Amino acid sequence: ARKLIIDTDPGVDDAFALALAALSSEVDLLGVTTVHGNVPLSATTINARRILALCKRADVPVAAGAARPLVHRRRKEAGEVHGADGLSGRSAALPEPSRPLDERDAVTLLADLLEAADEPVTIAPIGPLTNIAALLAAHPAAAAKIERIVIMGGALGHGNTTAAAEFNIWSDPEAAQRVLAGDDAPCVLVPMDLTYRCAVGAAWLDELDSSGPIGAALHALTPDYREHYRGALGWDGMVIHDAVAVAEAIRPGTLRTDRVPVQVECSFGPGRGATHADRRLPALRASTDAPDAASDVDVAVDTDLDALRALLLD
Ligand code: BDR
Ligand code: CA
């Protein structure tokens, strides 16, 4: 089975993504690291541990990482989307974790797991990229063991946190630029343009609810989040961004990608946190110099929606 580590800020869609990886027979989930993001680090950490307890994965270590962005302090959370506790106010209803929080910090756990791995490891960051940037900067030898970094983040069109920027990238643009522009490991970027198209509807959620105790417990985390997306989408559905990225991490090729240069805007103007993906025709791209800081990234642009929704439910 493919080796996988998830870096996360649960978050309702993170909870879905974590459960997907924790329950999949196609991956060996080596560890989970937590980061600031949707709610403060203390909440994302307990949420991640409770989701693993729900999935009966006490074998998976969880370590807490960065409580704030790498360089700049300015930060916005997403409690209005995910609920004040990150899980529609239902976190405490989940099972208590039986495994203690790992004593190591996230970056140390990531480095230790990578160094110990006997085959390449996929990392799926589904929150701000602070921990991953710190890992790449501090542990180049461990980073050499990374097969792919499959990131939920970015926007090719409009953003969701500002007009230009998607939440995960906006939350730590400098870290995102370090990860995407570094030559440490190949990156796949799963932007919100595609995750929105993969939204699930009431019938899918009902099926999840009636699938068994874990499905029902995940479904119980959705009310606040679903209400937010009912407004955002204009219909009764939910965007499970992070689960789309983790599906690709589990089963490469689930998403169709285009390889294009990407640069993260780190200025403090209205474009802060934008992911500038150069999707011009190759001939036009070749006619002008690419910006120095842009690197080639596999950007996810399409998928077989029915197959993806079936995989997630399965
Ligand atoms: C991303 O932001 C968070 O709110 C979600 O968990 C997802 O990772 C979507 O923009
Ligand atoms: Ca997330």
TrEMBL record:
EC number: 3.2.-.-
Residue span(s) of domain Inosine/uridine-preferring nucleoside hydrolase: 4-308
GO MF annotation: an example: purine nucleosidase activity
One protein family per Pfam: IU_nuc_hydro
Keywords of this entry: Glycosidase, Hydrolase
InterPro entries membership: Inosine/uridine_hydrolase_dom, IUNH, Ribo_hydro-like
Region annotated Disordered, chain positions: 75-99
Gene Ontology BP annotations: purine nucleoside catabolic process
Gene Ontology CC entries for this record: cytosol
Record bears the keyword Hydrolase: yes
Name the record gives this protein: Pyrimidine-specific ribonucleoside hydrolase
Source organism (scientific name): Prauserella sediminis
Upper classification of the organism: Bacteria, Bacillati, Actinomycetota, Actinomycetes, Pseudonocardiales
